[in-house]
Design a protein that fits this description.
326 residues; 14 strands; alpha/beta; eight-stranded parallel β-sheet
Amino acid sequence: MTELAVRAETWPLRGSFTISRGSRTAAEVIVVELAVGGARGRGECVPYARYGETVEGVVQVIEGLRGPLSGGLDRTGLQSVLPAGAARNAVDCAFWDLEAKQAGHRVWELLGQAAPGPVTTAYTLSLDTAEAMARAAAENAWRPLLKLKLAGPEDLARVEAVREAAPETRLVVDANEGWAPGLYAELAPHLAVLGVEVIEQPLPAGHDAALATMQRPVAVAADESCHDTASLAGLAGRYDMVNIKLDKTGGLTEALRLKAAAQAEGYGVMVGCMLATSLAMAPAFLVARDAQIVDLDGPLLLERDRPEGLAFEGSLIHPPEANLWG
């Protein structure tokens, strides 16, 4: 019999974090624990209002699994019981952790993979004025990769200011669906000249068909337009990369499927995250291997992380220890 525990947690951020859809000062996460005998597995998710999720709603969905779990529901069965999304993510990742603890092996060993090495993460600069973003870029110009949150017509000035403040740093920009086709067409060539490597989700999901008929001088990554493997069919001709987030795929199980399918179809891979602790980042580490862009900086944006959290050296992240996850 699998025992379930679920709780909501709030983790303050270092200041506020702003994207095109609004600002926040804390990360709201849900932690799931699954226990069998003396073994316990954990997973963490972030309900996201953009996808109609709330903390209360996701907790309720997870609580609804008590009966199926006591009746023998396992990770494989979970994939058809819950849809892709935050609730399934937390439970799926808890199952993986539980399986590793029961087997006495790391998750990558269960997957038949070699032990992962450290990866370099992007560091995200919150949306702000060009001047403020330039100051933040100057403070972080030593980092290998910066990701800039953008929103509209003043974005070229923002990127120019950041590039001047951090001339050697690789740049990725994320519009979070905040552009119209005309603005994309205007900005993309300039961003290419400024050395931007990826433009993430410039147009709203469901209204991005224009990308198929427009020049893409910078690689365009699907974020809100790509949730799971079923999403790939709608991306052809519009995107060059997919941003895989476990809160969208509904866990590590589907994230690994999506990665394999995307690579088979010729897409580049970006691994992203929501604002969350190291417990949410750890499973994504298994997807980050050989990804073109890794964006797992959530813990760096928190006021504090879990005591057993991932080890960061600047922007370099070391693989999780077993007492955190997997």
